[in-house]
Every structure is written in C-alpha cells, then in structure tokens.
Amino acid sequence: MKLYKLFILVLCFCSTAQAQNPDEKTIQSISEYIMMQGTAYDNLHYLCKNIGPRLSGSVQADKAIAATVNMLKQAGADTVYLQPCMVTHWERGPRETAYAYVNAKQKRQLNICALGNTVATPAAGIKARVVEVKSMQALHDLGIAGIQNKIVFINIPMDPRYIETFLAYSESGIGRRAGPAQAAKYGAKAVIVRSLASNIDTFPHTGVTQYNDSFPKIAAVAVSTADAEWLSTQLTKYPATEIYIKTNCKIFADKASFNVIGEIRGTEMPEQIISVGGHLDSWDLAEGAQDDGAGCVQAIEVIHCFKKLNLQPKRTIRAVLFMNEENGSKGGIAYAQHAEITKEQLIFALESDAGGFTPRGFSLQMNESQMAKVKSWSPLFYKYGVYHFVSGHAGSDVGHLHKLGTALAGLMPDSQRYFDLHHAANDVFEAVSKRELLLGAVNMTAMLWLVSEYGL
Length: 456
Ligand SMILES: [Zn+2]
Prior knowledge:
Blueprint: H1 3-19, H2 22-37, H3 40-51, H4 59-75, E1 79-91, E2 97-101, E3 107-109, E4 112-114, E5 126-133, H5 136-147, E6 151-154, H6 165-172, H7 174-185, E7 190-194, E8 219-223, H8 225-237, E9 242-246, E10 250-264, E11 269-279, H9 289-308, E12 315-322, H10 330-341, E13 345-351, E14 359-365, H11 368-376, H12 379-382, E15 388-391, E16 407-413, H13 418-421, H14 434-454
Parallel strand pairs: 5-6, 6-7, 7-8, 11-12, 11-13, 13-16, 14-15
Antiparallel strand pairs: 1-10, 2-3, 2-9, 4-8, 5-9, 10-12, 14-16
Helix pairs in contact: 2-14, 3-9, 4-9, 5-7, 9-14
The structure holds zinc ion (ZN).
Zinc ion is lined by residues 279, 291-292, 325, 353.
C-alpha cells in the first residue's frame, strides 16, 4: 500500500471515530445548515442597502431596530422585545471641508471627517498654522509655547509590526481618544488626527474622542492616511503651512432608543441565560457592514439555526443587538444595569464586533476554571478554522457585564483587513465575504450550543 493511501485511510478512520461524538455531530449539522441555508448574508444586505448608516439617534437607527425585530421573528425566536436605553445623539451635519495652504501658490483639499461627539468649528471655520506631533509625549513637550493658537496635527501611524491589528489600533488610538482634549489644554484651536487605518488611502476614518471637562472643547477631525503622509512631508519643507477647517456637527440631548433582543427559552434551566450579540448602530459615514452589521446578523443566525435544526438548548439563548456602541456604549450599559437590577443569571455573553472576516479564535474574559472548560472544547472547532482560545478582552458591549461576574468571550476573526475600512465610507456590504461571515456564525452557534449543554 502506498503511503498516501494509508494516510487517507487513517484520516477516514479518524473522522469516522470522531463523528461518533454527539457534540461533533451536532456541530457538523450546525455548519452544514448555516453554510447551505444561513440567512445572515441576506440580512446584512438588507441592513446595509435598505437602511444604510445607523448612527444612534438617527432615523436609520430606528429603522434598523424595526428591521431586526422582524429578522429575529423570522428566525423563529420564542420572544422578541425591545430594551429601552437613552443614547447619545450627535449629528455630523453637512460634510466637512479642509484645505492646506502650503505656500502662496499651493492650496490643496484634505480628506477629513469630524470625530464623533465633537463640537463644530465657528461658522466661518478655523484657519491657523499647523504643528505636527508624532506622539502624545511630543504634544506635552511642545506645551503652551508650541501649541497655543495653532492647529495640532497628531500623526501616529498604526504600528505594522503588530500582527494582531487591534493591538496597533489600541496603542495608536491614544491620539484620537485623548489628543484633542490634551491639545486644548495647551490652547490649540483645533486638532487633526491621522486616521486609525492600516493602509494608505484617501478615506478618513472617524471614531469618538473624549473631551476633558477641565479644558475647552475644540473641533477635532480625522484626516486620511494618504493626506497625513502628504501633510507631514509638506511640513518638513514648509513649516509655515496653514490649514483651514470647517465642521458642522452638533451634539443633542440623549434620545430614547432600544437594544433589540430575541430569545429561545431553555428547556431545563431557563433562568440561566447565554447571550450572543453585536452592535446595531454604525457610524454615519458607512453602511456598517463589517462594523458591526456582521455581528448582528451572526447573532440572529444563531437563533435561526437553533430553531431550524430543532436544537433545544438546556439554558436560555438570547441574541442581543446593542445600540450606541460607537459613540456612547449606552446600550451595553443599560443591558448590564438591567441584568444587575433584576438579578439575572447571565452566565455567558459572546460578542462579535471585530468584523465578519474568517474566524480564527475566541478571546476569553473569564475565570481560570471556566477558561479550562472552554479550552477543553477547542478540538471541536479545529475543523471550522478556529484554533485560538486565548485570554483577552471580549468586547466593549459585553464588557459592562464583567463586574457582574458573567463569563465573556469575543469572536476573533482574522484582523488583517479590518482597519482598512473600520469607521470609514468603504465599510460596505461588498467588503464582506458570504462564506467568511457564515463561518463566523457557525463557530458562534457551536460555542452557544456547548455552553447551553454543559454550562460554565
Ligand atoms: Zn464595532
């Protein structure tokens, strides 16, 4: 017998032997059902193309709530309901404009967008000299003498040495999160932040910044990475470069909105709840396909698959579509508050908010014995491309449950392309692969099945 034939025989024997494991059989049926008949991709198409951007407080956010209530009903959830929450309501207004005046001859338009929750410039805009910093330390070193009455350009690229791009995002993100408040402390007129993007292109990527109440609130925008590179080069040649910025955004009083919830009641321990979710709101610039329409439709797919395969969970399965993750996290906060007040037994919460790319693993935020239990299931996932079960942050919405002692997990898809489109206009339906999206839902459903069977 040739060696390769023996190898194939061994493989066949192994897969037959493993197929006798009932969990493996169940997970295989989950995979076959979702890959063949999953509705997540169609639901995502509806969210992206029939509704589009869904920033909290917008008409589209309300439409997304109504649409996903229907999707959960279609999926067969036993109960579908809305959980009230007050959400941040910020509007961009007409698109922003910015020009760089490099010297007397050269005026160039810059691709910018206001950062979320920022104030507008005065109606006439702001024009001032620009000073570039490449770290927060450099900003502090310049101080009042170097910053007062200038526009600060915070140019901190995402570090390409991080293979896990969320680490680069987190590290460079300090400029966006805290830069405007710190520049205001030294008398800056406005701030331009290099977009948190891993590629060089012309899309500005928005995201929230946090003001500090001790300092003035100044206008803050993101500039595309291509323009950031260009501007940095010009400033070395022409330090007297000036920039004009005009933004038109406005923050309103918090507005009433909802998290959308669908449940399948557990057959043996219905009081024990296992949740799975993503966030329904998205930035106003994009269709919010990868961030985070994908996570929402995957959570709905979990319900759909359980019902269609007649998988009867011992514990209650709950899909939660959180509102306001992007610029307030008030849906996640309201969800945790409700769980705390009503003393819900929320034993596990899984979040998918890292894109609908090929799933690679789960990030686990739980105690050691729970982690050991989840890791003992890991061989069941290998066939579906998921190998990494690592300790880490689960997600910003479920993160509010940490203090209640809920075991948390986040789906970890491949992260290489996520920050090419995160919070930018190119985060559209076409950027999502149907197979990758569905495979994520397969692994999420498998995880929910195992926790519903065995607890944690
Ligand atoms: Zn997100």
